[in-house]
Amino acid sequence: MAIRRLFTALLFCAAYSAAQNPPPSLTTIYNFTGGTDGGNPNAPLVMGEAGVLYGTTLWGGEKGYGTVFSLTPPASPGGAWTETVLYSFEGLRDGFNPKSPVVIGSGGVLYGTTSRGGEYETGTVFSLTPPASPGGPWTKAEYGGGLIASSGEPDDLVISPGGVLYGGCCGTIFALQPPASPGGHWGEKTLYAISGGITGYFTTQTHVVLGKGLVLYGTTSQGGDYGAGNGDGAVFALSPPATPGGSWSYASLYSFGGYPSDGVNPYMGVVIGGDGVLYGSTGYGGSSNGGTIFSLTPPASSGGAWTEAVLQEFPLVSTRNVWPGPLTLAEDGTLFGTTQFGGASLMGTAYALQAPATSGGAWTQILLHTFTGSDGSGPTGLLMGSGGVLYGTTSLGGAYGAGTVFALTE
Question: In this structure, which of 34, 58, 222, 263 has its CB flanked by the most CB atoms within 10 Å?
Fold first, then answer.
């Protein structure tokens, strides 16, 4: 209901005037200094119990190599949020430069990745276990040496109901199986190695999402079916084996290649709608080559072709693309997202896309906020909180130039 109220207010605002019905209000709830508190968050947030926000910063912390932090909401409305550094990375084998969000597992354990460092200097997968008593230190552990060594720079993780972690590293999709007893060894397995050619390949980012039946969906930023396109990226599905110990099955659902109209370089993964439709963004493409938002609708019968549609095209701004980021899908089907650049100040925007009232109609885009630098620059995605509040981070800007955490409310 809160989402519907927010969007109704936005549509009314667009029809009449911002003075009569102002757009959502942005509140900066934390300004990073770039010091021991962290700096330059490069990933969206996640929300835990009691509305606590968790995130990562690329830099800052005790050693300057990045942090995992929490933001606790104030006890009374209008008060200050409390930022706490849960862990400061030490660099080298400990890992550094986390640029992906964390995921929350059983018992409030946080799981995440670092893009650099570790035993093989190509990134780590880590966990942070909350303290037994409030105020104590969080306990860090690392997993996954071999896969990280062979692939490098692991990105976002997803966690299954059984606690298995899935992720990707520049072409390798992997799983980490939790131990049978606390403190035991995590089992590490390569599910599929994308080799290029007609299957596509990854460059620097690999994002997967977990669908029904433990099917993993993701994107390759380049490659694809060269017979049908120009190698501009692909969307794939990776299905679990029919019998224990069997091989996972890779399927290319769509190859981008109608340059530039259908999009180019889908690099931020996809989100899944309740009807199985996949939604994602491309960094380039569209009529102005500034990037797109697309949907992929599953076939009516098994084995048929998925149907791609461009929902939104972004213009080039001052001869550059705007880099649309990851999407958030609300319960009512509204898509929320950010662009890293663009807007009146060229410092990024937050926007919403509302589905048409009738099938095949045009989606409605509404600008939620244009960043100006003082309130942040380079937003990295949105999180839908309770009451329809949207939370996000900016990688730059703010009071100290080291990024912010913000809230958008109606």
Answer: 263
Pick the CATH number of 44-329 from 3.40.50, 1.10.12, 3.30.70, 2.130.10: 2.130.10
Pair of tokens at residue 344: 């009146």
- Cβ partners under 8 Å of residue 17, min gap 6: none
Longest dimension (CA), the chain: 62
Phi, psi of 161 (to 5 degrees): -55, -25
**pLDDT tens across 248-287, in order?**
999 989 988 766 678 888 989 999 998 899 999 999 888 8
Alpha-carbon distances of 315 from 107, 288, 320, rounded to whole Å: 45, 5, 9
The conformation of residue 325, written as its DSSP 8-state character, comes to: -
Task: Map out the domains of the chain as residue ranges.
Answer: 1-31+330-410, 44-329
pLDDT tens for 194-230 read 766 555 555 545 689 999 999 999 988 877 775 444 5
Q: From the CA atom positions of the chain, what is the Rg in Å?
A: 21
- Residues 55/69, Cβ–Cβ less than 8 Å: yes
Whose CA is closest to 124, among 159, 174, 171? 174
- CA 259/CA 338 separation, integer angstroms: 23
Distance from C-alpha of 374 to C-alpha of 398, rounded to nearest angstrom: 5
Determine the 3-state secondary structure of 106 from DSSP.
Answer: helix
How far CA 248 is from CA of 183, 193, 244, 304, in Å, comes to: 28, 11, 10, 20
pTM of the predicted structure, to 2 decimals: 0.92
Q: Is the peptide bond prior to 22 cis by the omega test (within 30 degrees of 0)?
A: no
Q: How far apart are CA 395 and CA 262, in angstroms?
A: 29
C-beta separation of 306 from 297 below 8 A:
yes
3-class state of residue 272 by DSSP: strand
Q: Exposed, middle or buried: residue 80 (CB in 10 Å: 0-12, 13-18, 19+)?
A: exposed
> Which amino acid belongs to residue 118?
G
> What's the rounded Cα separation, in Å, for the pair 269 and 263?
14
Tally Cβ neighbours within 10 Å of residue 237. 17
Residue 335 β-bridge partners? 329, 353
Distances (CA, A) of 238 to 24, 193, 235: 39, 11, 10
